Amino acid sequence: MQLGFVSAILGDLSLEGVLSLAADEGFACVEVMCWPPGGADRRYAGVTHIDVNNFTEEQAAGIRELASHSGVSISGLGYYPNPLHPDPEHRRVVVEHLKKVISAAPRLGLKVVNTFIGRDPSKSVEANWRMVQSVWPEIIRHAEAERVTLGIENCPMLFTADEWPGGKNLAVSPAIWQNLFKDLPSPNLGLNFDPSHLVWQHIDYVRCIRAFGKRIVHFHAKDTRIDRDRLYASGILGLGWNIAKLPGLGDVDWGALFAALTDAGYQGAVCIEVEDRAFEGSLADRKRALRQSKRFLEQFV
Questions:
Q1: Which of 55, 83, 157, 245 supports an S-S bond with 118, CB 3.0-4.6 Å?
Q2: By three-state DSSP, how is residue 164 classified?
Q3: How much is the pTM?
């Protein structure tokens, strides 16, 4: 396994700055964000460390040289929109950009692009499934043609009452993964596995790894702390009782998790995803978050 981090937390740095920081801190890899330029509509979105619009071979060669010079590899490209957005024009725009990200990957010598399946939060799983079957086969065919594997992250994207009850991402549980891989039976579709999102859903993340380990193509290292007092007050139908934390500061049993990962034969990237508000005050705080997370995870990786 290779220990790295997700570049979204360093949106104020250039790609060269991100790779330089990773090298200075002893990281092996970075997952690089590829949002369209123009700003974010939510936290950790809108970060553009590689602009894949009108992406040229000269640009690709420059990025390959940057990575080689730094000694830090790129674990994959990341773009996390909602490809099943209820607005057809929005869907079209994000799907077209996702295809550009997929096409950029092999030009950089990469085989993994991480993203979301998406969801219309106002509709049932069954209604969204019809959208999956309409939208996703074309994306997967494009990935197959480019010899890229898609890592689908399992974050429910459920943060506000407007997104209740389903959130903005469908592929969040073992039952849905099983159906996804059955209905879209492509070796170019896999999981970008994040245990933190399973903790607060009360899903056994170790069992998930044992069941779906061969489908994991990328891994996000993030923890979650359950605020028991808020959970008591609002119940599981409330919001705000699951709090993103750095690895080791939440409820994930990292020893059991890595035992399952190694048993599954996973040898890919383990990228720290910093979404801990206690470490967002400054660039120095975010660097400290990466440093602290690295020290903790090195006992397993």
A1: 83
A2: coil
A3: 0.95
